């Protein structure tokens, strides 16, 4: 089930990102702080008509999330996309992605951008399946690591 974000979900979004990125990619507390700040900013400042977070639940337990944040009138940013390890390969990522893209189309955004890292192989496959394409790469220090950061874009209008 995909449901609307409730303000109390912010703790889950922050905790899950910190925990999973630490376990799977050895990200440190600086990444968790970045997620904490971005989620708190969303909760306090988001235009809920143009920006949204969805929570995936299985048996009443949160198992993932995805968000859309407004960049400008034409551009949305896909954020906070994550599926719990024990819930992967069940279609939740596809459902979340479909929800975010459909919402962006309904809000008449012309494009969606996202930033990811080159080592997030499964997420990158899903982005490509939905028509996103890499448009920019940069090297970045994050969590004490040198990472290749990628900007991907999906055009929503022809």
UniProtKB/TrEMBL annotation:
Boundaries of every N-acetyltransferase domain copy: 1-155
UniProt KW keywords: Transferase
CDD domains: NAT_SF
Entry keyword Transcription: no
SUPFAM superfamilies linked to this entry: Acyl-CoA N-acyltransferases (Nat) (SSF55729)
Gene3D superfamilies noted in UniProt: 3.40.630.30
GO molecular function per UniProt: N-acetyltransferase activity
Record's protein name: GNAT family N-acetyltransferase
Organism: Paenibacillus agilis
């Amino acid at each position: 089930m995909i449901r609307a974000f409730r303000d109390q979900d912010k703790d889950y979004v922050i905790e899950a990102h910190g925990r999973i990125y630490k376990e799977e990619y050895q990200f440190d507390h600086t990444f968790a702080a970045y997620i904490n700040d971005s989620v708190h900013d969303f909760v306090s400042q988001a235009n809920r008509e143009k920006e949204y977070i969805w929570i995936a639940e299985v048996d009443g337990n949160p198992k993932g999330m995805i968000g859309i944040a407004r960049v400008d009138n034409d551009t949305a940013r896909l954020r906070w996309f994550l599926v719990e390890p024990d819930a992967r390969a069940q279609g939740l990522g596809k459902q979340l992605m479909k929800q975010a893209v459909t919402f962006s189309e309904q809000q008449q955004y012309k494009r969606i951008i996202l930033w990811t890292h080159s080592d997030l192989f499964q997420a990158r496959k899903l982005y490509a399946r939905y028509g996103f394409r890499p448009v920019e790469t940069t090297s970045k220090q994050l969590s004490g690591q040198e990472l290749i950061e990628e900007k991907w874009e999906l055009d929503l209008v022809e």
